Structure formats: C-alpha cells, structure tokens
Amino acid sequence: MKTQVIFATAMLTLASSTAALAHASFANQPVKIGSYVAATLQVPHGCDGKATNEVQIKLPEGFISAKPMVKPGWEIEIITGDYQKSYDNHGKAITSGPVEIRFKNGELPDDFYDTFVVYGKVAAGDPATGLAFPTVQLCGANAKVAWTEIAAPGQDPHALKGPAPVLAVEVGQGNEHAGHAAHAADSSQGQVSTADAAGGAHGAHAAHAGHDAQMADANPGGFEPVTLGNLELTAGFTKAMLPGQPVGGGFITVTNKGDADDRLVSATSEQAGEVQLHEMSMQGDVMKMRQLKDGITIPAGQTVELAPGGMHMMFYKVVKPFRQGDSVPVTLTFEKAGQVEVMLPVGAR
Q1: pTM of the full predicted structure?
Q2: Distance between CA atoms of 21 and 209, rounded to whole angstroms?
C-alpha cells in the first residue's frame, strides 16, 4: 500500500476520560456485500471537553471506490493507495483507490454530535465481524480520541477501550442499483449531506456528486452559450442526483475576451438553499477539496473551466433532486460583468 500524507501532526495525548463515553459508531443497518452504501459515522463527543477539529477514517480492505460527502466548514483529504486484492466494479478491475478519508479544520464542540459520511461499495467482508473503520478524532494540537482497536473473531467490541466503528455486513446478491437506493436514503439526513462527498458524495456523491474526473463525460450538451459583457459562457451542465440526495455539482466554462480580469463572485439557484464555489486538486496521493470563498478569477484573454475534478459549483440543501433531461436555473454574479441567469442541462449520473 502506498500512501502519502502531506500534513505533519504534533505528538498527541489520548484523553482517557472520553474512552468511557459513547463510542464512535455507524448509523447504518447491515449492508449486503456487493452493494453501495453511504457509511454514516456518528461522532458523539470530543476529547475530554475539547472540540473535534479533525476526523481521520481508515477504510478497510473490501470497501472500495470511496467518496466522502462534503461538509461545509470542513476540508477533506483523500489518501489513496493499493488494495490487497483486485475487485470487480461494474465489470472493471479495481486494484487501488482511497484508503483513508480525513475531514479537517472543522469545529465540532464537545457538547454536540455530528455525522461524517463516506460513500463506497462493500465489495467484500465477513458477516461475522463486519468491516472495521479505525477512526481518530483530533482536538487541537495535543489531544485525540482513538477508536482503532479491532475485535478478534468472537470478541465483544464493547470490551475494548477504543473499539473501531464497525459497519455490519450480510451475505446477499450484489444488487448495485439497490445499493445506490440505500445510499440515497442515507443521504437525506440534513447535515449529513454537507459536502461535499459529495459530493457523491462531492456526493454523494453522491456526495460528492460532481467531484471526480471520471465524470468528465457527463455533459449532456444543449447548453445555450451566453454573452455577458466581455465574458462568454459555454459548456454548462450538472448531473442527475439520487432520490433524497441534497448535494449536487455544477459546471461551466467562462472565456474572458476583454483586456481586464474579472471574477466569479457567487452563484445562487432557486433549486438549492445555497451554492458554493469549490476546488478539488491532487497533491501527490492526497486529494484536497476546499471552498473558494474569494471567488474564481477569470483572467483577461483566458478561459476558465469549472469542470469535474477541478473548480466547480456545489449545490446544497437541494429539495428536489436534479433529474436527467431537466435544467437547473443558476444566477452567476461577476465582479465587473454583473449578473446573468443560465440554465444548466442535467446529464446522467
């Protein structure tokens, strides 16, 4: 397994008093092997009174093609590596992928509870033991809670001081479409949706629906080019969402034909409670996702693409999931060119 971590952490101390409190656990019912699931990790408390600022989740062998659901206020790192075995996914052999997900630089006070969602396929697993996801909460610079102990076969996990959260699995035909439906149901839990695995989960895709480069062929075409001052907008589209999925991605290309820079300041849509501008990038084997709070610069004489795997729009609190064949109205605000409403055609997931 090859992983690269780009952030160094200081020496940490385990807060002993929290070990006796509620364990980190999954909210999911047993998942059929061969199905997809939005694994919903419940974090019940911080580190001995301190707020949780980072949640590190190691993915077990057999949980493949993982995508974190995006969470506003949190950055996400995806650490990739090789799997021990090769797995089939829609007829394609998968030998590597995400092996650890890190939700970073957030703020979860000790008095509050929250969930962190990772979408993926349960390609293999033992129903007798389930799939253990060793998880660490970091609180500030010198405290942590480690849920990393994996119970031996027949051992009661509750007898362990820091049992790793376990996703229960069961034998069953790998109905991948049924798995997608289960993911949609799990994705409808309000704050759980916060890109973004969305995303496919990005979102969802879900979470981070709209965040990985494999979706580059999702543009259904049909976007009507728009001219706004010196700007030309082309190749706009979004992707169909799963039932109940509250997070989606949007994409468009902007060409600045003027001699002065402009900036995409914000985006809004009547079909979403909030639209944010995001960027996803790879640094070595680590995928980083962040919100672009200062907007996106459109340099003079250049073209900027908001596309899968790079800069994009994230739609939050979507009441009615986008359906293939429909269009989504979006109002874009530029610093100099002003506002314009565009219709983004909805392509396939």
Answers
A1: 0.57
A2: 35
260 with 300: CB under 8 angstroms?
A: yes
Each residue of 259-277: pLDDT tens digit? 999 999 999 999 999 999 9
The continuous run of DSSP H or E covering 233 comes out as strand 231-239
Measured between alpha carbons, how far is 331 from 333 in angstroms, rounded to an integer?
7
Closest residue by Cα to residue 31 from 122, 146, 158, 141: 122
Q: Which residues contact 65 (CB under 8 A, 6 or more apart)?
A: 89, 94, 97, 98, 120, 121
Q: Which neighbouring-strand residues pair with 234? A: 253
Q: Assign 60 a pLDDT band (cuts: 50, 70, 90).
A: very high
CA angle 91, 186, 35 (to 5 degrees): 25
Q: CA–CA distance from 123 to each of 88, 153, 173 (Å)?
A: 8, 20, 11
Q: Give the amino acid at 253.
A: T
Q: Which H/E stretch holds residue 185? A: helix 176-186
Q: Note the pLDDT of residue 173.
A: 58
Residue-level pLDDT at 294: 94
Q: Would you state the torsion angle of the CA atoms of residues 312, 313, 317, 320, taken in this order, to the nearest 10 degrees?
A: -100
